[in-house]
Amino acid sequence: MAAATYPPPPPYHRLYKDYSENPNSAPEPPPPIEGIYVCFGGNYTTEDVLPSLEEQGVPQLYPKDSNVDYKKELRSLNRELQLHILELADVLVERPSQYAKRIGEISSIFKNLHHLLNSLRPHQARATLIHIMEHQILQRKQAVEDIKRRREEAQRLLKDAFVTLDGQ
Question: Which stretches of sequence are listed as region Disordered (predicted)?
Answer without folding.
Answer: 1-31
